[in-house]
Amino acid sequence: MRSVLIANPKGGAGKTTLATNLTGHFANAGQKVTLCDLDRQQSSLRWMAFRDSAMAPVNGYFAGNQMLISLPKEPDWVVLDAPAGLQGYKLADYLRLADKVIIPVVPSVFDMAATEDFLGSIRQDMRGRRNAIGIVAMRVDPRTRAAAMLEEFLKHFNLPILSYIRHTQNYVNAAARGLTVFDPPSSRHRRDVEQWEPLLQWLKD
Ligand SMILES: Nc1ncnc2c1ncn2[C@@H]1O[C@H](COP(=O)(O)OP(=O)(O)O)[C@@H](O)[C@H]1O
Ligand SMILES: [Mg+2]
């Protein structure tokens, strides 16, 4: 079993979008995947409830406010969808469970400011395994000024941007139906799937 935590204290950063789509990727690749919802709002599990049983299967569980002692061992992958505001000892606990950590960041001044302290503390908590932390630039075209601003901001933390995920209604529409860009029909999401490639490669390394 390998585990990946998706975290950022800012609400709306794209944690659940990354978590559900990553889960969809593993499921469509024929892997056993469990989506672990750490958020009391249970958005990930709601997404799962919409999912058609004809689609590649995913498991889910709600860890709620509980301290997680252990993760299920049977699946190939466990994807942990963190709540907004996660910090302190709870964050440190979840970090111990995770083989890799993905931090989605929207390149707005507000989002970057809200993420700054978190990036500092996560670097501290993960010292010794900083190459297990990766950033995903959320809702951005890499050729824009917004992307350049984000790159400048991240230089201070020496963390890599793994993928740039564009802003598209594909994510919104898929989410509403319990789907992901990795579910069929694949022709509709080819551009989006391509954007995930470096992130997926990094996860599997
Ligand atoms: N790449 C994207 N393009 C368009 N909308 C997006 C994208 N990523 C996320 N969203 C939308 O932004 C909102 C917040 O995303 P969400 O994944 O729920 O964030 P979080 O879990 O961090 O609070 C959702 O409505 C989601 O559909
Ligand atoms: Mg969420």
From TrEMBL:
Stored InterPro entries: CobQ/CobB/MinD/ParA_Nub-bd_dom (IPR002586), DNA_Partitioning_ATPase (IPR050678), P-loop_NTPase (IPR027417)
CDD domains: ParAB_family (cd02042)
Domain CobQ/CobB/MinD/ParA nucleotide binding intervals: 4-181
Range of residues in the leader sequence: none
Family annotation (Pfam families): CbiA
Gene3D superfamilies (alphabetical): P-loop containing nucleotide triphosphate hydrolases (3.40.50.300)
Protein name: CobQ/CobB/MinD/ParA nucleotide binding domain-containing protein
